[in-house]
């Protein structure tokens, strides 16, 4: 059985004061849950997470990382820097990075390789736009995005991935894929993983990242290939985030 995983993606939100309250409330509410949980926060707040969350059940990570180890890459953040702050996870290839910063499948693959080499779990984001879905291209798009990553890593590394399926048309729009729609894509992704390493594929956590909320979390996570959520807006409210974590039980 794959353990459920619920990860909050704070995006570009937060302040030292509000973060301290939010993290305290989440940690206090993490009663004996069977699910793993973490928050991926803006880089300036990684030190705050490390100081406040060390020894707790709530993990933490970053929202992006460079494929480069060091050097003249102004504004970039290396895996070694993430290691300095005890990061367990890093979100890679989020649809907002792909759309607003032009990240290619090749760049996403290179960042994944860098994270794996550093022992940081990459949460690789994959998903189609509304136009692509309406054109019947969903399966081809997600297979291409994942294929670039799988081509860049070794067979043994498949087990170290976390995937997040995020239908771009459902992020922040209030729209959500039905549980069956999401399951269908998750099943395609697991099939792509299995073509690389069938044994490892059975254990990879595939999260749903399209407006999961307390109201729909349980139904979504009841699907056989939906192993948790990558949570946006709901992760900024302790009660909502905790409700999703507990829905995973």
Descriptive report:
It is a single chain. With 249 residues, this protein is α/β, with parallel strands linked by helices. 42% of the residues lie in helices and 15% in strands. It has 11 helices and 8 strands. It has helices at 16-29, 46-53, 79-84, 95-100, 105-117, 130-134, 138-152, 179-196, 198-201, 217-221, 238-247, and strands at residues 5-9, 36-40, 58-62, 89-92, 121-126, 162-165, 205-208, 228-231. Strands 7-6-5-4-3-2-1-8 form an 8-stranded parallel β-sheet. Strand 1, helix 1 (16-29) and strand 2 (36-40) form a beta-alpha-beta unit. Helix 1 (16-29) packs parallel to helix 2, helix 1 (16-29) packs parallel to helix 11 and helix 5 crosses helix 7 (138-152). The longest helix has 18 residues, at 179-196. The two termini are 13 Å apart.
The profile of the biggest β sheet is: 8 strands, parallel
Radius of gyration: 17 Å
Q: State the distance separating the first and last CA atoms.
A: 13 Å
- The number of helical elements comes to 11
How are the strands of the largest sheet arranged?
7-6-5-4-3-2-1-8
Q: For the residues shown, what is the average pLDDT?
A: 96
What global shape is seen?
Answer: globular
The total of beta strands comes to 8
N-to-C order of helices and strands: EHEHEHEHHEHHEHHEHEH
User: How much strand?
Assistant: 5-15%
């Amino acid at each position: 059985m794959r353990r459920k995983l619920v990860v909050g993606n704070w995006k570009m939100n937060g302040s030292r004061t509000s973060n301290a309250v939010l993290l305290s409330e989440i940690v206090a509410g993490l009663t004996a849950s069977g699910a793993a949980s973490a928050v991926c926060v803006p880089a300036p707040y990684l030190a705050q997470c490390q100081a406040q969350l060390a020894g707790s059940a709530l993990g933490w990570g970053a929202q992006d990382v460079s494929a480069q180890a060091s050097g003249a890459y102004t504004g970039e953040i290396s895996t070694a820097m993430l290691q300095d702050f005890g990061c367990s996870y890093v979100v890679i290839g989020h649809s907002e990075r792909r759309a607003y910063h032009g990240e290619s499948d090749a760049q996403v693959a290179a960042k994944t390789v860098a994270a794996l080499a550093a022992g940081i779990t990459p949460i690789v984001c994959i998903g189609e736009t509304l136009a692509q879905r309406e054109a019947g291209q969903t399966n081809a798009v997600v297979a291409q995005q994942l294929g670039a990553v799988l081509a860049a890593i070794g067979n043994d590394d498949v087990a170290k991935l976390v995937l997040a399926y995020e239908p771009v048309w459902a992020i922040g729009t209030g729209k959500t894929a039905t549980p069956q729609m999401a399951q269908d894509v998750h099943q395609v992704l697991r099939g792509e993983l299995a073509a690389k390493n069938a044994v490892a594929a059975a254990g990879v956590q595939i999260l749903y990242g399209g407006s999961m909320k307390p109201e729909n979390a349980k139904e979504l996570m009841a699907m056989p290939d939906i192993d948790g959520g990558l949570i946006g807006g709901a992760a900024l409210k302790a009660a909502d985030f905790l409700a999703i974590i507990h829905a995973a039980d």
